[in-house]
Design a protein that fits this description.
Composed of two chains; the small (or glutamine) chain promotes the hydrolysis of glutamine to ammonia, which is used by the large (or ammonia) chain to synthesize carbamoyl phosphate. Tetramer of heterodimers (alpha,beta)4. The chain is of the alpha/beta class and 390 residues long. The chain folds into two domains: 147 residues, Glucose Oxidase, domain 1; 220 residues, Rossmann fold, CATH 3.40.50. 24% of the residues lie in helices and 30% in strands. The structure holds glutamine.
Length: 390
């Protein structure tokens, strides 16, 4: 199709779609993805950029996301920007999908990307009203139907969705086999992934749904990374004699990942340097004896201010979580290092007697903000210290 024709007559532009929420709300719109039906928890994300990274973040399994920024698709899609092997978000809900994209790196349009990854998506709905509703009522289950539409059936499906509480999704999205990771972050100038010459630390990374850019940062920081499946027993990992262990981000309820909590307890006992991001941070808190809870609508965005409690410094962070470490009955040995300046919730922890650190936000945010990258430093320093101690 010529570019002009594409602009005037974008594919699928008039195919109807509907989003039905479990409380009976109906949003009528236009399909911009494949025909079909998607059922999941609906969350809103306030990031202006990064729709492709959001869609391919495994932490969005069993969720569909509405983006508050109104124009989604302007910069197209570029394969190397995917955060994992596939799209994990169940569906996409947007205000407007432009008929054409403009970006020197774009390889395909968002519509084509959604087709390729078989994603059900709806546009032309009032995402501002939807977001207000989710903020007032909290996250709700929903169903997007595109193609053959039956609103009653969509409502029944939305109502039947069991919710994320108690769902263990880490083992579902994890890799099957251990493998090594040896690729650094992307260099825009050379258009290649960096390759770090020196690998000082041997790190085992649990894959609970790990984002590629976290592994890339570990590589940049001089870590030789072995990625292992979510249910790998602690003994197997300890037998690999790593310098440090990383617990990744991932979807679902941390409290349902009992095997990971048990493994983490063994690592804490062994005193091996530990670092957890998002789900990994929550699992570490559970292993220390803290609790976790489901938030009303979670944190999903790219401009969340987080304060370092003692330093009184503030970082702008990227966030994607629905659960959080509970403030009630925190164990003595857990120190809260960071808090959200939006709602005061716990954003960072450390063990007072062991080299173990957790951070709720995403220091690998791509695209940006990158100032939370500092959060890797205590983990790297702990591995260096252990080596120095012999
Ligand atoms: N990005 C993540 O790791 C999310 C962690 C967890 N599934 C939550 O929703 O809170």
């Amino acid at each position: 199709m010529s570019k002009l024709k594409q602009i005037l007559f974008p594919p699928n532009d008039h195919k109807p779609a509907v989003l039905v929420l479990s409380d009976g709300s109906v949003f009528q719109g236009v399909s911009v993805g494949v025909d079909g039906c998607a059922v999941a928890e609906v969350v809103f994300n306030t990031a202006i950029t990064g729709y492709q990274e959001i869609l391919s973040d495994p932490s969005y399994a069993e969720q569909m996301v509405t983006l508050t920024y109104p124009h989604i698709g302007n910069t197209g899609a570029t394969a190397v920007d995917d955060e994992s092997v596939q799209v994990f978000a169940k569906g996409l809900i947007i205000r407007d999908c432009p008929a054409t994209d403009s970006n020197w790196r774009s390889e395909q349009s968002l519509r084509d990307y959604l087709q390729q990854h078989q994603v059900v998506a709806i546009s032309d709905i009032d995402t501002r009203a939807l977001t207000n509703q989710l903020r007032e009522q909290g996250s709700l289950s929903g169903c997007i139907m595109a193609g053959d539409i039956d609103v009653d059936q969509a409502l029944a499906k939305a109502k039947a969705f069991p919710g994320l509480q108690g769902m263990d999704l880490a083992k579902v999205v994890s890799c099957d086999q251990p493998h090594t990771w040896s690729e650094g972050t992307y260099d825009l100038n050379s258009q290649q992934f960096r390759s770090s010459g020196v690998q000082n630390h041997r790190v085992v990374s649990y894959d609970f749904g790990v984002k590629r850019n976290i592994l890339r940062i570990l590589h940049d920081l001089g870590c030789e990374v072995t990625v292992v499946p979510a249910q790998t027993p602690a003994e197997e990992v300890l037998a690999m004699k790593p310098d440090g262990i990383f617990l990744s981000n991932g979807p679902g309820d941390p409290a349902a990942c009992d095997y990971a909590v048990a493994a983490c307890q063994q690592f804490l006992e062994a005193g091996i340097p530990l670092f957890g991001i998002c789900l990994g941070h929550q699992i570490m808190a559970l292993a220390m004896g803290a609790g976790t809870m489901k938030m009303k609508f979670g944190h999903h965005g790219a401009n969340h201010p987080v304060e370092h409690v003692t330093e009184k410094t503030v970082m702008i962070t990227s966030q994607n979580h629905n659960f959080a470490v509970a403030d009630e009955q925190l164990p003595e040995l857990l120190e809260v290092t960071h808090r959200s300046l939006f709602d005061g919730s716990i954003q960072g922890i450390r063990h007072t007697q062991k080299p173990a650190y957790g951070f709720q936000g995403h220091p690998e945010a791509s695209p940006g903000p990158h100032e939370a990258k500092r959060i890797f430093e205590p983990f790297i320093a702990a591995m260096q210290q252990e080596k120095a101690n012999g």
